[in-house]
Amino acid sequence: MDETYYSLAASCAIGMEELVAEEVASFDGRNISRSPGLVSWEGALASGYSACLWSRYASRVFLELESFEMADESALYGRSREICWQDHLDLDTTFAIDCTLSGKPLLTHSQFAALRLKDAIADNFRDRLGRRPSVDTNAPGVRFHLHIHDSLAHISLDLSGDSLHRRGYRVSGGPAPLKETLAAALVALSGWTDQPGEVLLDPMCGTGTLLIEAALMFGDSAPGLSRKRFGFMGWRQHDASLWNTLVAEAIVREEAGMSQPWPQFLGFDADPAMVTAAKKNLERAGIADHIKIRQGEVARLESPGGRGMLLTNLPFGERLLEKEEVALLYRAYGRIARQRFPGWRMAVFLSSPELTDSFGLSWDKRLKLYNGDLACRLLVGTVPEIDDQAFTWNLADVGNSDEFVNRLRKNMKKMQKWADKEGVHCYRIYDRDLPEYNFSIDLYEKWVHLQEYAPPGSVDPDLATARLNHALQGIRDVFGMRRDRIFVKTRRRQKGSEQYQQRESRKKLYEVREGGCRFLVNFTDYLDTGLFLDHRPVRIRLAGKVKGKSFLNLFGYSGTATVHAAMGGARSTTTVDLSATYLHWTRMNLALNGFSSFAHTTIKADCLQWLEQNRGQYDVIFVDPPTFSNTKKEHRVFDIQRDHVRLLTLAMARLADDGFLVFSTNFRRFSLDPGLERSFAIREISKETIPFDFQRNQKVHRCWEIRKKSLGTG
Question: Which of 142, 160, 437, 524 is least surrounded by Cβ atoms within 10 Å, i.e. has the fewest?
């Protein structure tokens, strides 16, 4: 074996130098040194070959041919022309030159420096052999690397040829794929123990790169074994016998590694295209029998049992609105991990360091790494053994009190007993029970939302204000609540779409629960909070009937029915609304529950116009339009009483033959056109959909279930 020692170097992404240095030591490297993005060492040719074959983290491997100080710009050409290039390539070997600069380089243009080295090589061959080899920048026989730091030039042979992250198994990378070298580093830095009893689970696996790299590590498979060519193969001093020996040894190691008992490798992704691509990559890598990949949302993630590691490269959004939705998806992931994977190790790689705290977890390690030029973080920790504690009310005993406080306490005891039994967290506790206290009071988890109905002009404004202040004090006394958890709005008779228009712009959202779902509510900016409490039974009813079906939500508002449908197992959901704000709210609610956009579409459109143009078919349709709305831009006016026949006729044309449509309205004077019953099978379900906490107000909404008449009422 050739024991000539060379100056060798391996480039890598910043933050991975220590991993590469550990590898180099195993390749019999000596005098190892590290600098940002580069590990240098001395070693025999076998050390350089081993780095090409075995390094999981290096991008390229270089063997230095010459280094020299440059007194001026002409020195690069002059000194390079003196090198015996015939020792490294012949006339029939194509070549290419890459150049990098650092420090205060004597030559400041990398392309010009590369051109001067190319001229030196060409002129050297002309001087000695009368003609020159050709340049091929795409697939050269050998590739040289020129690095100039200040006035020092280093000329090296690129042993790797192509970047080492290209293992050869990737059939499809998908959008913004994770480089294999970075994926391997994430596996190593996560602390995954690769023991047979440990599970490695990637809940957002994309094309499976993390799982494949982990499996190759466990199977002791050299990452370069699948590559057909390296840069040194066109080098005149290439030792083919040495290379073949190293490859043979690697094959023996791989056979032994692949035959041992394997841990579970599990991957999920919401995008079916990514799942298909991942399976193709597994087949190409030869490890399809060892990794299971399925389509699945984070919302449906379940523990396979035992203990293991959750490791994933998280999706990210670059636009502001996308980033808000991504932060909520991270929050959902952290919550689901706490609920279903207590005691597991967890590592997440994210490209938005400012979202580190979105998961609600404490991290043992926060490592800075780079994905290309993008500064990222790898967060590593242990999922806590206990889940979030549910909020419960402890009512205070305020002694002898007035009629309003007594009524509030009486209502609350009754409602709390019901709510605890049914698992309801947001509900109405007072609805204008006393004429003098003309309020509705709703509990949203640990917050109170009080809606004052504007008194008639005959009532003294000072008296109305005094009653409101008295009620607020009573609420604080009964619930032992801080003032900043009580939100007050005054409801007046609304004109047009006023109830949907913005009142303030605090943009503060609070998370609440309903029927296994989580929702974001806004207590300040709009008259309504984003969660209509009287529609709770309707949403839960829909959730129980949509499994495996397609769901359409017209006038989707904040998408609460859409989230329930998704949680109920809908195959797909489509939410249509004219408001970009509400559609963003819908996407945030979906993300908060662990759902992505792949099966859940939001469409900004006028619902009537969209129904006229759309030709899709849906198994379940929910229609809950406003009583009245208008659009300034198109000068269109929607009136529920006038337009409901057209609306429902168009919607029923989009309904599958065996499907059903639920239509609801809060318009108290609404009258369903009797002509609709001649075309469709209609059953009013209003009584079935009025919740317990709205029993005093049976007219809060009306609701119908509509089917195609040929199939009967079912």
Answer: 524
